[in-house]
Amino acid sequence: MSELIVKQQKELCEIIERYAQKDGVHPTAIPSLFFIRVSKSAGQSHGVYKPSFCMVVQGAKEVWLAQEHFRYSPADYLVASVHLPVTSQVTEATPEVPYLGFKLEFTSSQILELLHDTEFRMDPKQNPKRAMFVSQIELSLLDSVIRLARLLDSPKDIPVLAPLFTKEILYRVLQGQNGIILEQLVMEGSSTHQITLAIEQVMNNYASPLRIEELAEIANMSISSLHRHFKEITAMSPLQFQKQIRLQEARRLLLTESVDASEVAYRVGYESASQFSREYSRMYGYPPKADMKRLKEQGPEQVSNV
User: Fold this and answer.
1) 98: number of Cβ within 10 Å
2) What is d(CA 121, CA 90) in angstroms, rounded to the nearest whole number?
3) CA distances (Å), 4 to each of 33, 108, 139, 142, in order?
4) Which of 184, 203, 223 is the last residue of a domain?
5) I want to staple 38 with a disulfide (CB 3.0 to 4.6 A). Which of 99, 208, 219, 299 is the partner?
């Protein structure tokens, strides 16, 4: 890394440490911007990435999308272009040098607006690519990130300047070597755009039985094309995707509401409580009751830093 990048990252660390003084995920005064702080490496966390731009500012982190593994450090950034259920783990963090993260969520509308304002163009028939990637940070992109973070020290400027700096960050990502992945997200007629419609259907109706024919109709694809493109983009089949969403929502309900495992199983769409318990244990390593006891002993900051 260049000396200038190191200097910029040091300033970003200082900003995050001021606004994230305790472990956890911290919303900021800028909507869609979050800071993450973790003071010790712990076990794996499970969660759903919304479309987002993520940076490790200090420390290191690993993310698994199904069986695919991503590792990123302060030299890199990670982008998820659609909702994706993932597993993550902070691998470098101490109380003296905590893990610090920067997360900026975005919408497909913001990407579409950028494409209308620029000359980015792609062939909608181009093969779909994985909806998550890691790229090396460049100075121009880091400079945009710093300027957005600095706005927290001048709140009166946030309403006007935050949208501009956010747009610049997304523009820089579009200019990067993996920018085509964001283009595919909103390009009508592209397989990625069509699959995002199917993903939205699963996300909004995860507790209902999965109807592949209905998903194929929504995506305007044959059933075989739906399966192929869905896996190319998300690294999993529609059924695997739904199962991940169900189990993650079940875990959230168990942690936040006074309900037992049987009730949660039915609420997230399982007809059999025993099947729910088996699949929960397979994903999290413990049956629901034991998992809740373990997580509550660890403390809320260890439950998820996704």
Assistant:
1) 22
2) 37
3) 24, 32, 8, 10
4) 184
5) 99
**166/201 same-domain check:** no
Nearest one of 210, 204, 144, 153 to 172, comparing CA atoms: 144
Of 162, 184, 206, the one marking the end of a domain is 184
Contact (Cβ atoms closer than 8 angstroms) between residue 134 and residue 78: yes
Instruction: Note whether 217 and 262 are same-domain residues.
Output: no
Summarised one tens digit per residue, pLDDT across range 49-87 is: 999 999 999 999 999 999 999 999 998 999 999 999 999
Q: pTM of whole model > 0.85?
A: yes
CA-only gyration radius of the chain, Å: 20
Q: DSSP class of residue 36?
A: E
Count Cβ atoms below 10 Å from residue 153 Cβ, excluding itself: 10
Question: What pLDDT sits at residue 282?
Answer: 94
Residue 19 has which token pair?
């606004």
Pairing of strands 76-80, 132-136: antiparallel
53's CB contacts (< 8 A; 6+ apart) are: 77, 78, 79, 103, 104, 106, 169, 170, 173
CATH number at residue 152: 2.60.120.280
pLDDT digits (tens, 9 = 90+) for 244-283: 999 999 999 998 988 899 999 999 999 999 999 999 999 9
Mean of pLDDT over the chain: 92
